[in-house]
Amino acid sequence: MTKILEFYKCNICGNFVEVVFPGAGELVCCGQPMEKMEEKNTSEEMSEEKHVPIVTKTQDGVEIKVGSAPHPMEDSHYVMFIEANSADKKYVKRKYLLPHEEPVLKLKCDCKEVVARELCNIHGVWISEKQE
Ligand SMILES: [Fe+2]
Questions:
Q1: What is the pLDDT of residue 130?
Q2: pLDDT tens, 26-46?
Q3: Residue 24 CA to ligand 1 centre (angstroms)
Q4: Separation of alpha carbons 118 and 64, rounded Å
């Protein structure tokens, strides 16, 4: 059973999908089950300070930066997108990024609570805080 906003990846062709509406079936691509991408918030093996999104309130919304330390934005290692979700998961905003762009998402909104996620092309999905 999938859950809303989960990410799954095909380890053969690279398809990367997000669940919009959950269902009971298993997600399959290239003839095998897709891998569920775990949302990391801490890590002993990877540099979490370069990956965990930081959400900061601004005068007219929020600013989301990737990491308390700069994450590389090189051709071979970069942040592919930053996503902002409302705590109730009713609103989703995603900004796709290219190498050499600044990994920042600025939103004008009347946001009370924002949960941010980002995808590093090497180190996977990271979340600002865990939600039940
Ligand atoms: Fe990374």
A1: 53
A2: 999 999 999 999 999 987 777
A3: 32
A4: 10
Q: What's the CA-to-centroid distance between 7 and ligand 1, angstroms?
A: 17
pLDDT at residue 132 greater than cutoff 50: no
Residue 75 lies in a domain: yes
C-alpha 82 – ligand 1 centre gap (Å): 13
Summarised one tens digit per residue, pLDDT across range 55-102 is 999 999 999 999 989 999 999 999 999 999 998 889 999 999 999 999
Residue 85 Cα, ligand 1 centroid: separation in angstroms? 21
- In this structure, the answer to whether residues 13 and 61 fall within a common structural domain is no
Angle CA 125–18–85, to nearest 5? 70
- Residue 1 in domain: no
Domain interval for residue 76: 48-127
Ligand 1 centroid to residue 23 C-alpha, Å: 31
Whether 101 and 74 have beta carbons less than 8 Å apart is answered as no
Question: What is the pTM for the complete model shown?
Answer: 0.91
What are the tokens at 75? 């051709």
Residues measured by CB to lie within 5 Å of ligand 1, the ion: 120, 123
